[in-house]
Automatic annotation (TrEMBL):
GO terms for molecular function: citrate synthase activity. It catalyses: oxaloacetate + acetyl-CoA + H2O = citrate + CoA + H(+). InterPro entries: Citrate_synth-like_lrg_a-sub (IPR016142), Citrate_synth-like_sm_a-sub (IPR016143), Citrate_synthase (IPR002020), Citrate_synthase_AS (IPR019810), Citrate_synthase_bac-typ (IPR024176), Citrate_synthase_sf (IPR036969), Citrate_synthase_typ-I (IPR010953). Pathway: Carbohydrate metabolism; tricarboxylic acid cycle; isocitrate from oxaloacetate: step 1/2. The lineage of its organism: Bacteria, Pseudomonadati, Bacteroidota, Flavobacteriia, Flavobacteriales. NCBIfam families: cit_synth_I (TIGR01798), PRK05614.1 (NF004126). This is Citrate synthase. SUPFAM superfamilies: Citrate synthase. The keyword Acyltransferase applies. It comes from Faecalibacter bovis. Pfam families: Citrate_synt. Belongs to the citrate synthase family. Keywords: Acyltransferase, Transferase, Tricarboxylic acid cycle.
Length: 401
């Protein structure tokens, strides 16, 4: 039997909250979200205004520094990132050592962690300058590694960073540059890509951001902390949902397109199947990012002249769920990942690269969370538990078991 009176933590009684549904882990000035209202603010600015008027470079600055930059500040920030786009040659060898079918998220987290080996002086940070230096190092090298991961799984030669381009256009060309003379990405596509990255840039204390903070709270360096966040993002209940959504839509298509059949499967409590891209831990109203991304998805498909039957299945599924009592009563609406996969597919990004795209978007948010955690001297994260195992008993010799 358990002595409940022993459930005492360092500063009071222990609370049990599996999944931390009602537990705050920190104070934060970065992102506000109101799940009932479907509201999302970055540093106080509504996501709708940011997605409409800003760009990813500015959003990275805003998340990290707390304010919108002047032109001079932005130029300095972008220049600092550009100084850090050179990735160690040994990382190419590591990339080549992965088997062809390796999942890109595994490659990305490994190479991100490996960056600590090539930037040892940036692991231990004490001052603002050191934190900023570690941050721009990672912001510079990360898209290169992410793009190389796609080149690797597509069996294409690696591309180089082009410092004459914006952060997003450069990432895009590293993904897709086919080596033709004067290669130039379509500005409408780059714009939609920019929006996608903005919408993913931060989302307060989600599974991956909390992981970054928890690992970082032991004062492990930025590369190890972000690598842990990448692993957390990988799962299909979090960032991996965008890959799972597309696989689900394809499964519905291959099965003859009967949306109702899959909805019934998701409602069956004996069946572990869930509709991917529906529901959210915090949003119990429409995900504001989903509204914006839905429009961007339409624009991309129109620009590219794509008439994808998968999109019709997605629209049918969305409509049927909005009218279904099970989904209505549980306030399960499409989330951002329901639509992002449709854009990525249209851009010819391989399905298992979708979550890597999410990671590139989320990187500045993770870094901002990591910095804030260090700046506010957050104590090491160390939850307690309710022990339900055996009471004290005597060791049994092998011969007597
Ligand atoms: N399909 C069917 N039923 C669902 C779904 C779904 N996608 N999501 C939740 N439910 C049901 C649950 O079974 C539960 O039903 P019950 O009350 O009858 O037991 C109820 O809705 C509440 O669900 P919870 O599991 O308590 O919700 P929780 O907050 O723990 O989980 C989560 C949120 C993980 C996002 C969940 O909705 C889910 O698995 N969705 C599908 C995966 C997905 O799209 N993830 C991406 C999230 S967004 C992001 O990370 C960027």
């Amino acid at each position: 039997s358990i002595d409940i009176s022993k459930l005492r933590g360092a500063t009071g009684l222990i609370t049990m909250d599996p999944g931390y549904k009602n537990t705050g882990s920190c104070e934060s000035k970065i992102t506000f979200l109101d799940g009932e209202e479907g509201k999302l603010l970055y540093r106080g600015y509504p996501i709708e205004q940011i997605a409409d008027k800003s760009n990813f470079e500015e959003v990275m600055f805003l998340l990290l520094k707390g304010e919108l930059p002047t032109q001079e500040e932005l130029d300095g920030f972008v220049a600092d990132i550009r100084k850090n786009t050179e990735v160690a040659e040994e990382l190419v060898q590591m990339l080549n050592a992965f088997p062809q079918g390796a999942h890109p998220m595994g490659i990305l987290s490994s190479l991100t962690s490996a960056l600590s080996a090539f930037n040892p002086e940036k692991i231990s940070v004490a001052t603002e300058e050191e934190m900023y230096d570690a941050a721009v190092t990672l912001l510079g090298q990360f898209p290169v590694i992410a793009a190389w991961t796609q080149r690797k799984i597509k069996g294409l030669p690696l591309t180089k960073s082009d410092s004459s381009l914006s952060y997003v256009e450069n990432f895009y060309q590293m993904l897709f540059n086919d080596g033709t003379e004067g290669y130039k990405a379509d500005p409408v596509i780059v714009d939609a890509f920019d929006k996608l990255l903005i919408l993913h840039a931060d989302h307060e204390q989600n599974c991956s951001a909390s992981t970054v903070r928890l690992v970082g709270s032991s004062h492990a360096g930025i590369f190890a902390s972000i690598s842990a966040g990448i692993s957390a993002l990988w799962g299909p209940l979090h960032g991996g949902a965008n890959q799972a959504v597309l696989e689900m839509l394809e499964a519905i298509q291959n099965d003859g397109g009967d949306v109702a059949k899959f909805i019934n499967k998701a409602k069956d409590k004996e069946d572990p199947f869930r509709l991917m891209g529906f529901g959210h831990r915090v949003y119990k109203n429409f995900d504001p990012r989903a509204r914006i991304i839905k429009v961007a998805a339409d624009n991309v498909l129109t620009t590219l002249g794509i008439n994808d039957p998968i999109l019709d299945i997605a629209k049918g599924l969305e409509q049927a769920c909005l009218e279904d009592d099970y989904f209505k009563s549980r306030q399960l609406y499409p989330n951002v990942d329901f639509y992002s996969g449709i854009i990525y597919k249209a851009l010819d990004i391989p399905t298992d690269m979708f979550t890597v795209m999410f990671a590139v978007g989320r990187l500045p948010g993770w870094i901002a969370q990591w910095m804030e955690m260090r700046q506010t001297n957050q104590p090491i994260g160390r939850p307690r538990q309710l022990y339900t195992g055996a009471a004290t008993r005597d060791y049994v010799e092998m011969s007597a078991r």
